[in-house]
Amino acid sequence: MQTGTLFRHCYEIDIGEGGGRGKHFTSWQETPLQIEFDIVKNADEEPNRHMLRLFNLTSETADAISIMDNVVRLSAGYVEHTGAMLAAVGVITSAITTVQDGGTVTEIEFLDGYQEMRDAALSVAYPKGTKADAALRDIAQKMNLKLVMADRLPFREFLHGYSYYGAARVALRKICGDSGLEWSIQNGELQVIKSNGYTPRRAVVLSASSGMIGSPTRTRIAAKEKAMTEPKSAAKGKGTQAETDARKRQEAERRKQARQEKFLKKQKKDGWVVESLLLPQVNPGDIVKVEARKITAFMRVDAVRHSGSFYGDEWKTELNLREIVLDERDNKQQGATRR
């Protein structure tokens, strides 16, 4: 798809309880809402932290969607290409409405996998000889998540059996760690791949003709090992409406900074940063093929950031990448797709 044909932004947003649809917002309505989003994803065990802003909602609609643990599904894309594709899923952990420039802005923070990690408990016992993949399937079912696994994974065998009672996320960490695997939750799915490996999804080509913006930038910054922490809430207290809005904006800024830290946390030494027109289908652990003057190579996505403003110019994806050697069988199968 030539980049010159990709002009019109489109989106679909659903916010409601559990699997219910709830409130639906779309760019196809007669007067679409202005929206902004900042989607940050890493291939680690912490919930991916996302932000969505909805402008000038009625007070009734803002109140209806601003409920903790409501599920947000955000899809975005281009009218002239595939339309809106799933970019992020998560449960609401913060919702703040402020008055700005004579209108209102409802800012929602939602975390992918937060509820499942928080609530899912596990009680299992396996006889000797059981392989770890059986346990992973049980854990995914208990967490009510679809399990997506790469091919040919080196599952450990429980030589003396295995029993566990406690938080499902702790069992995931131990079972995957013992088998040389890594796990994360991406778009409401439990993703399991080899440690520093890649998913079986077909690679997307990043080139000037497919939407790459500028040239790949080499990074030589050591990965940040600082653990992600919950941003502190702004101090509450009585005051004028202006003071209240100022506190809310301060809290929103802290959360924005936390998302930025999470994105930078996976920036690898001797990696690459690439910007592209929006690629909502690309997730951490995927393979992309970079075709540029500086370099042509298959690379693993360590972190991805989708950001956009419906009526603005920004509608793009930023990727932190590192070169990777594909398994010979995968190399033959990777007929990379262009967008």
Distance between the termini: 7 Å
Measured as a percent range, the helix fraction is 10-25%
- Which class of the largest domain in CATH terms? Mainly Beta
Shape: globular
Outline the biggest β-sheet.
13 strands, mixed
Order of helices and strands: EEEEHEEEHEEHEEEHEEEEHEEEEH
Unreliable stretches (pLDDT < 50, length at least 5) are 1-5, 223-237
Q: How many structural domains can be distinguished in the coordinates?
A: 2
The CATH superfamily of the largest domain is: Baseplate protein-like domain - beta roll fold
> Might you state the CATH topology name of the largest domain?
Phage tail proteins - horseshoe like beta roll fold
**How many beta strands in the DSSP annotation?**
20
Q: Which structural class fits the helix and strand makeup?
A: alpha+beta
**What percent strand?**
35-45%
Radius of gyration: 21 Å
**Mean pLDDT score:** 86
